[in-house]
Amino acid sequence: MSAPRLPGVYVIRSRGEVVYVGMAGERSGNGLMGRLARYHSGKAAASGFGEAALDRALADAVFVRCRLAELESGRTLRAVGWAKAAIAACEPELSWTVTPDRETALVLETAVVDGLRSAGVTLWNR
User: Fold this and answer.
1) Which DSSP string do the residues of 33-50 spell out, in sequence order?
2) What does the alpha-carbon distance between residue 107 and residue 104 come to, in Å, rounded to a whole number?
């Protein structure tokens, strides 16, 4: 992944539909790259897009049957593995824009979420 280490806002599409909008601040100097890398690694299973993708996957009988078949064949996955599989299952496409700082990213994220929701887009954001 080659996202910038700067603050910004990211948009995630699943199968062409916008499903999630998030922001990344200056977190340990890693900005967007740090936040998106946590999703890619499966380590964000309890927050943001990682949690939303896992929630949807666990409500999908096909996804759960596939994981059950893996378990029954002796292949076990840790929680991170389940989260990575859930994220991969939604075929995410990422785009982002850099902002000067965390505060600007937060304002932009709110504006994008509000604009999409007012246009009738159903986001996975809580």
Assistant:
1) HHHHHHHHHTTTTTSHHH
2) 5
pLDDT, residue 54, reads 94
DSSP states of 5-33: SS-EEEEEEETTEEEEEEEE--GGG-HHH
Please list the residues that pair with 13 across neighbouring strands. Answer: 18, 93
What's this model's pTM, rounded to 2 decimal places?
0.89
Q: How far is CA 93 from CA 27, 68, 84, 104, in A?
A: 22, 27, 15, 23
**Residue 89: enclosing H or E segment and its boundaries?**
helix 79-89
- Distance between CA 22 and CA 102 in Å, rounded? 12
Q: Which distant-in-sequence residues (6+ apart) come within 8 Å of 88 by Cβ?
A: none
pLDDT per position as a tens digit, 16-61: 999 999 999 876 668 899 888 888 888 888 889 999 999 999 999 9
Residue 106 to residues 22, 23, 68, Cα–Cα distance (Å): 9, 6, 39
